[in-house]
Design brief:
This protein has about 210 residues and is mainly α. The protein contains seven helices and three strands; from the N terminus they run ααααβββααα. Helix 1 (about 25-55) runs antiparallel to helix 2 (about 60-80) and helix 3 (about 95-105) packs across helix 4. A hairpin with a 4-residue loop joins strand 1 (about 125-135) and strand 2 (about 140-145). It folds into two domains: about 25-85, Orthogonal Bundle (Helix Hairpins), CATH 1.10.287.990; about 90-200, minor pseudopilin epsh fold (3-Layer(bab) Sandwich). The two termini are about 35 Å apart. It binds manganese (II) ion. Manganese (II) ion (MN) binds near residues 162 and 167. Manganese (II) ion binds next to helix 1.
């Protein structure tokens, strides 16, 4: 049903990512910022439902823009929360995911270097993603501005890193680089592996 998205709870306590991401940042980020995107997406979808009912699509361009921004904002954050875990539970990637990373980025360290560089280089607010691209049968890194710009369609994100200032400014101030480097201590590679496995179920029509 249109416009009924809800804010999911975090899969861990607000302080679970300490010391790399602080509790206060997590509370504001999840409870206020993420909620704003859920509400924005619902509003856009409700607007489209009303437009279908009345047959008046004068506002469709505006509504689609809201849906792209807030919908990406909502879904990116859901992935981001699940992509992280307490540093006490950290373990390196393994199996099929690690093999694919080595195939597409030469080594795990080279992948981390490329992903981190992309995250640090985002101009203004944005995200870094590791995506499965069924079109090329490969993992790729992509860096989005805002929540949704500069993407490559049909790419399926499996790992997301939020580099908006609201994600790190309280603890790191302007030092985005340190925040990005610390992210490697709290990546939930088991979750990334599940996303990778799911993404591979989609078969691109052109081989
Ligand atoms: Mn955010």
């Amino acid at each position: 049903m249109a416009g009924t998205h809800t804010l999911p709870e975090l899969p861990y306590a607000y302080d679970a990512l300490e010391p790399y991401i602080d509790e206060q940042t997590m509370r504001l980020h999840h409870d206020k910022h993420h909620l704003g995107y859920v509400n924005g997406l619902n509003k856009a979808e409700q607007g489209m439902a009303e437009a279908r009912k009345s047959g008046n699509f004068d506002q469709i361009q505006h509504l689609e823009r809201l849906a792209a921004f807030h919908g990406s904002g909502h879904f990116n954050h859901v992935m981001f929360w699940n992509n992280m875990c307490s540093p006490n539970n950290y373990s390196d990637p393994s199996g099929d995911l690690l093999n694919q990373i080595k195939k597409d980025f030469d080594s795990f360290d080279s992948f981390k270097a490329q992903f981190a560089a992309a995250a640090k280089a985002v101009e203004g607010s944005g995200w870094a993603f590791l995506c499965w691209q069924p079109g090329g049968n490969q993992l790729v890194t992509l860096a989005a501005e805002n929540h949704q710009k500069q993407t490559q369609f049909t790419a399926i994100p499996v790992l997301a890193l939020d580099v908006w200032e609201h994600a790190y400014y309280l603890k790191y101030q302007n030092n985005r680089g340190q925040y990005v480097d610390n992210f490697w201590n709290i990546v939930n590679w088991k979750d990334v592996a599940r996303n990778f496995e799911s993404a591979q179920q989609y078969k691109f029509p052109v081989k």
